[in-house]
Inverse folding.
């Protein structure tokens, strides 16, 4: 099994999922962070198993909020315990969560609030820096 790893934030769908498949095809092991509950969580478990069986790689997924300090800390602690954590090849930031409201609207009640803007920025931009 390869000792190369990639960390994907937002691994369960969209770009993150497709990028995980691309790396797995090339033999990379995947650390993935996702936030999925219920049937979506079950689908992610199936995806993880598919990656491991089809591409003969190791997939370690964490179900948690990648924008939360505790989640990031836990993920990094697990990565640090790998045999050779310096083989982490890439970090992919594919988090997509936030408010989908207009910045400007005739009816001010339809516009994004400051809190919604800050939450969106925290998840989709600031989490990469943290």
């Amino acid at each position: 099994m390869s000792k190369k790893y990639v960390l994907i934030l937002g691994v369960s769908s969209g770009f993150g999922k497709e990028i995980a498949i691309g790396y797995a095809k090339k033999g990379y092991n995947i650390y993935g962070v996702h936030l999925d509950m219920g049937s979506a969580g079950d689908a992610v478990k199936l995806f993880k198993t598919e990656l491991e069986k089809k591409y003969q790689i190791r997939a370690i997924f964490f179900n948690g909020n990648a924008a939360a300090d505790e989640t990031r800390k836990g993920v990094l602690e697990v990565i640090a315990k790998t045999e050779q954590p310096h083989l982490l090849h890439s970090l992919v930031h594919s988090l997509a969560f936030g408010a989908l409201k207009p910045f400007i609207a005739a009816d001010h009640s339809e516009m994004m609030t400051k809190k919604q803007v800050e939450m969106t920025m925290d998840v989709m931009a600031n989490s990469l820096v943290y």
Q: What stands out?
A: The chain is about 45% helix and 15% strand. Residues 93 and 128 are 7 Å apart (CA to CA).
